[in-house]
Amino acid sequence: MRPGIGWIGLGHMGSVMAPRLAAVGWTVTGYDLDPARAAGCGVAAAATPVELAAGADVLISTIPDDAAFRALLAGLAGALRPGTTLIDMSTLSPDASARAADLLDKAGVAYLRAPVSGSTGLAAEGALSLFVSGPRDVFEAQHPILEVLGKRITWLGPAEEARVAKLVVNSLVGSMNGALAEALALAEACGLNRPAVIDLIAGSAAASPYIASKVEKLKERDWTPAASISLIAKDLDLVLALAEARGLAMPQAALNRARLAEAEALGWGGRDMSALAALPTREPAVTIAALEDERYAAMLAGDIATLDRLLDTTLRYIHSSGGTDSKESYIAGFASGHVRYRHVTRSGQSIQVSGDAALVLSRLGIDILVGGKPKRIEAMAMAVWSRTSGRWRLICVQSAPAGQS
Asked: What are the DUF4440 domain coordinates in residue numbering (predicted)?
């Protein structure tokens, strides 16, 4: 008797992969944060992950990132039954996956890491490449499920080998994407016909399955996402973090990540990653100006998630009053409601960029509530941004009074 399958995460890939199993006779129930997705892909729906786990022998997850995976496991705490198998097919960091393995082992749950490589089109055909690691006997037991989803299935070892392999492949995908964008920009600058050059590349020594999958998108400038800019940016963050932890420099990956950051700053995060081919060249100062705009908008909105993304872990924030905050204490002021910015005016902004460092000088007029008490601040401010692994982050702010009431 075939085990019941519970599928968690019915986004671009999950919504295509789960119905394949149902179509060949597996009993599949799905769950997604958006309830309409389960109905939209034609599988039965569970109201919660806990409800899903209660009726499934095998759980399969396709979710966005480490944070979503941690949240999933926390939500399933106490609901996972010993003897259940979890197959995670997401792109996650080896560290997050290893921590999950410990939790699942204590719960008596078998765990396969099975990230996938390929497009939604290949997923619909069951032709994905699957990188798998985990106990070999569990891999063999679940092979009938895997072979419905992938054409090329490779077992790599008993632990986090599949996670590393997926990041290795995605570092190459990121590099090909960046190189292709540059090559097309050069061709167009020299007056070559864009569609003809795209066909030429697709049939040249530089041809690859990735380029073949993007030919029509590039010709039509169709940026409907198969894999979005934000998704590949997240993957390159994982690549660069893994390389840093191993003492390895990856300058090409860092440069590609920097271009993706420019695309995100333009609001292109939801576009297909091939949209990098349409990204205009920006001076670093323009990127810094956009990041400063984003930072001040986040301060006014109390947007902690954006501040967390923009501020470096080493941040030192020196206020015009003389007080100093770390990143943690600065964000805590927003989270607790102790600090609330009501209005900020900026004038006289100047930006100086030197390599991977940027200095921003400006005059500020700030209306703020501190502990519920209104305060007006006039200050001269200096902000220092640093680019590491292709991403700009704020490392220091220092303000000095320029008149105060």
From this structure: 288-394
Give Cβ neighbours of residue 150 (< 8 Å, ≥ 6 apart). 116, 126, 127, 128, 129, 130
363, β-bridge pairs: 347, 380
Residue tagged 């010993």 (tokens): 82
Three-state SS string over 55-103 comes to CCCEEEECCCCHHHHHHHHHHHCCCCCCCCEEEECCCCCHHHHHHHHHH
**What are the chain's domains?**
5-158 (3.40.50.720), 164-278 (1.10.1040.10), 284-404 (3.10.450.50)
At residue 306, what is the residue type? T
- Would you give the DSSP letter of residue 272? B
Tally the C-alpha atoms within 13 A of residue 67's C-alpha that lie toward its C-beta.
2
pLDDT in tens, 316-350: 999 988 899 999 999 999 999 999 999 999 999 99
Per-chain mean pLDDT for the chain = 91
Query: For position 95, what pLDDT does the model report?
Result: 94
| pLDDT tens digits for range 44-64 | 888 899 999 988 999 999 998
251-265 and 284-301 are packed helices; what angle lies between their axes, rounded to 10 degrees? 60
CB 378 within 8 A of CB 403: yes
Between CA 256 and CA 245 the distance in angstroms is: 19
